[in-house]
Amino acid sequence: MGQCGITSSKTVLVFLNLIFWAAAGILCYIGAYVFITYDDYDHFFEDVYTLIPAVIIIAVGTLLFIIGLIGCCATIRESSCGLATFAAILLLVFVTECVVVVLGYIYRAKVEDEVNHSIQKVYNKYNGTNTDAPSRAIDYVQRQLHCCGIHNYSDWRNTRWFKESKNNSVPVSCCQPSISNCTGTLTRPGDLYQEGCEALVVKKLKEIMMYVIWAALTFASIQ
């Protein structure tokens, strides 16, 4: 019976190790996804510390992989010291995931203020060239989020690019894809996206932060 119990315990621990490795992969993927997505919107968000939860998530994923390795070795060798280390690191990971959740909610609450503060600056830097980073960022956001201007397409009238171009049009990235031969002219406002980008950028960034929060909550609950 004793030997059977030991074998069952080993099986359970090996199974847990596999879960940790799977969790490590998922957490690293989520952290990387947040980094890549934020890179597309970084011009609208000046506070780089917002990426701290994503950095911690990747670190936790790496730590979980190490935990799985330690646990697997300790199980095979039946090392009480190894299993104690396994449990201690697991507790550390749990605490770290709780910290990620708290930081995630803190920075998620700051998203709207950050975007409100920076979006006007980005639009004022627009010059319509693909070589210019702010211009690429605005065109990308308008195409991806199906929006135009800060609150609506009329905001473009107040930008330096609009005043200098003097062609009474907005960037073609404001054009709805279903409209053929759209030039962005304001004489045909029905061809343009009607919703502004500010609210949609805020919504997108908050959604991204929620991925981190839910990932940390899920794996903390599992542990």
TrEMBL record:
SUBUNIT field: Interacts with claudin-11/CLDN11 and integrins.
Identification of the protein by name: Tetraspanin
Membrane association type: Multi-pass membrane protein
GO CC list: plasma membrane
Known role: Regulates the proliferation and migration of oligodendrocytes, a process essential for normal myelination and repair.
Main location: membrane
Subcellular location per the Swiss-Prot or TrEMBL entry: Membrane
Keyword field contains Transmembrane: yes
UniProt signal peptide: none
Ranges that cross the membrane: 12-36, 48-71, 83-107
Species name: Lates japonicus
Family: Belongs to the tetraspanin (TM4SF) family.
Keyword list, A-Z: Glycoprotein, Membrane, Transmembrane, Transmembrane helix
